[in-house]
TrEMBL record, chains A, B:
<dbReference type="InterPro" id="IPR009057">
    <property type="entry name" value="Homeodomain-like_sf"/>
</dbReference>
<dbReference type="InterPro" id="IPR044559">
    <property type="entry name" value="WOX13-like"/>
</dbReference>
<keyword id="KW-0539">Nucleus</keyword>
<dbReference type="InterPro" id="IPR001356">
    <property type="entry name" value="HD"/>
</dbReference>
<keyword id="KW-0371">Homeobox</keyword>
<protein>
    <submittedName>
        <fullName>WUSCHEL-related homeobox 8</fullName>
    </submittedName>
</protein>
<dbReference type="Pfam" id="PF00046">
    <property type="entry name" value="Homeodomain"/>
</dbReference>
<dbReference type="GO" id="GO:0005634">
    <property type="term" value="C:nucleus"/>
</dbReference>
<feature type="domain" description="Homeobox">
    <location>
        <begin position="82"/>
        <end position="148"/>
    </location>
</feature>
<dbReference type="GO" id="GO:0003700">
    <property type="term" value="F:DNA-binding transcription factor activity"/>
</dbReference>
<keyword id="KW-0238">DNA-binding</keyword>
<feature type="DNA-binding region" description="Homeobox">
    <location>
        <begin position="84"/>
        <end position="149"/>
    </location>
</feature>
<dbReference type="GO" id="GO:0003677">
    <property type="term" value="F:DNA binding"/>
</dbReference>
Length: 159, 159
DNA sequence: TCGATATGAATGAATG
DNA sequence: CATTCATTCATATCGA
């Protein structure tokens, strides 16, 4: 999606302050593409939300083994064992939830070092973590998002 | 969202046929809103699909009378089969032979995404397969090869 | 049913 | 950021 977003902006002027004047920034065809994308995601989300509801209706207990009631079941998917010694860092469920939320809020944008430091401090309250861990996580998360978006594209382009 | 879409269209002209001329149809601010919406839906969909997958994985034992046609779009998004057992991809004997041959032949050449795509298309003639499957296979095959040579090393060291 | 092994897949970390 | 590696998890298969 990033790629097409970029190409979409090619025709956009530098965004000068407009005094009530509207500049030509998108063709109608481009708008149609955008609307189709939004509609597609709307439908997909609605269907998945329905699934989710029936899911939690039947399986309230799943994902709660670690006893963190504040954790949305939707977010409690990457839970890992804490017991065994591990050589590489793995986010705790709480940390994962925080990270995922931040990722959504930031819309996948790159973080500055200051932001990384803040996030690291916040996460540190829920388990050991370094700034490198956070940095790597966001980097890998973006890659994951991108890869999955590509898969979406190839499978939903019929919509 | 419907509401905001409508309000967004208020400033759009009636969509007269344009002879190569671009009409002012959206401001940059509006585009930004749209982009954020799309990104948000992308990420939400990803998370919901993940939830859905884990749901299916744990639901293995329950009769899935929910397997109605309306779920088909979900399956198209990468989720596995609903009614039958969960399955992970496994190469057919023919596919495996092709992959092994390619692995021996191409020992050293870097496999670009183009190569992966070609190989996927070839394998697809002998059974369902995705590019990710092929990519993972080569990755795991390399690891396997490396581990074996390491074992060989340790055995010859004692001589 | 219970390990034991093989292997597809996910992901933290490293490299270019 | 794109690729790749190293490690780990999950599942399929098999034999006792």
């Amino acid at each position: 999606m990033d790629e097409r977003e970029r190409s979409r902006n090619n025709g956009v002027s530098g965004g000068g302050a407009n005094g009530g004047l509207v500049y030509p920034v998108m063709t109608e065809e481009q708008i149609q593409i955008l609307r189709h994308q939004i509609v597609a995601y709307t439908i997909i989300s609605e269907q998945l939300v329905q699934m989710y509801k029936s899911f939690i209706a039947q399986q309230d207990f799943i994902g709660m083994e670690l006893g963190n009631p504040s954790c949305d079941p939707l977010m409690a998917l990457g839970a890992r064992k804490i017991s065994s010694r591990r050589h590489r860092w793995a986010p705790t469920p709480v940390q994962l939830q925080i990270l995922e939320n931040l990722f959504i809020q930031g819309s996948g944008t790159t973080r500055t070092k200051e932001k990384i430091k803040e996030i690291t401090n916040e996460l540190a309250q829920h388990g050991p973590v370094t700034e490198s861990n956070v940095y790597n996580w966001f980097q890998n998360r973006r890659a994951k998002s991108k890869k999955r978006s590509a898969q979406f594209q190839s499978k939903t382009e019929s919509i």
